[in-house]
Design goal:
14 helices, Rna Polymerase Sigma Factor, Chain: A, globular, alpha/beta
Amino acid sequence: MDALLPQVLEFRPKVVVIATNEVRERLCIGLQQAGLDRALWPELLSGPAAIVQAAISNEVDFVLSAIVGVAGLAATYEAVRCKKAIGLANKEVLVASGKLVMDAARQAGAELIPVDSEHNGAHQCLRAGRREEVVRLILTASGGPFRNTPRSEFASITPAQALNHPTWKMGPRITIDSATLMNKGFEVIEACWLFDFLPKDVGVVVHPQSTVHAMVEYADGSVMAQVSATDMRMPIQYALTYPERAAAPVPKLDWEQARTWDFFPPDFDKFPLLQLAYDAQMAGGSATCTLNAADEVAVDAFLRERISFPGISEVVAETLSKMPARTPGSVDEVLEIDQESRAAARECVRQRATVRT
């Protein structure tokens, strides 16, 4: 609410959709206290149906999908079906429901422009040649705060340490996912759907400087790399203005300064969630939906100090082993699998939390 109210007052949108009626009432109070004439208020809506309604409105030609988690899935899916241009900043949409969403995009002729820096970089690199000329896509990872930490010390890692990302400023869940490399695993899955790659053709390299965001290898051995400052305003603007490029208010790299870029292979033994992501994408069906749901539950449990840092991957692996493979045929089925997976993950957490206490 602290961020929403000033935006409403500055940009004067026609419609504002809030998650719940309670938050909607708080916004009303804020608008009253700000002294905004009631005639100038936007239409205030709330709830999941309202989010879908706003996303598919005839007045909307571009939808930025940035709602965290599967809460943004239904609105994004319906916007795709209505052939809206989509700026995709929500990994869970494709991680949980990649086949449904991409099938709908192909049928409607909708285009998804990725906003995540790595996929945005890949999108730019892929413009250098034809898709059939591409051999491999390579995503970079910062390596997180524990790249050089021995695995023997992982059990003593605290939430405060895991939230201290060396490069990016992000929300709690994505920061922990970066520390476990789960975030990179999600990005591998998303890349497979966005760009029609098999998991074996999407590589990950650890690049601590976070300046090279993605690379694409072509059949002749050429590698195209997308390089930019670590500033999310650039990929957001790219998605908003594509296929044009406009000047962006971001720092430019100073090529007169000496610099070194390092690249290392990821350690799959230290960070098993990355391998679990590859395995889930290869398995297909509901596995990636379960992967995402279990990870969200496990990360929350770690932040609440109910399980250890290694416990995150243990909960995810156990949940995947317990959930039966299914092939969802609708968004409602995806959401049902998501809820069942969360329940299974919470039980795994409960058992571990009991042992710890």
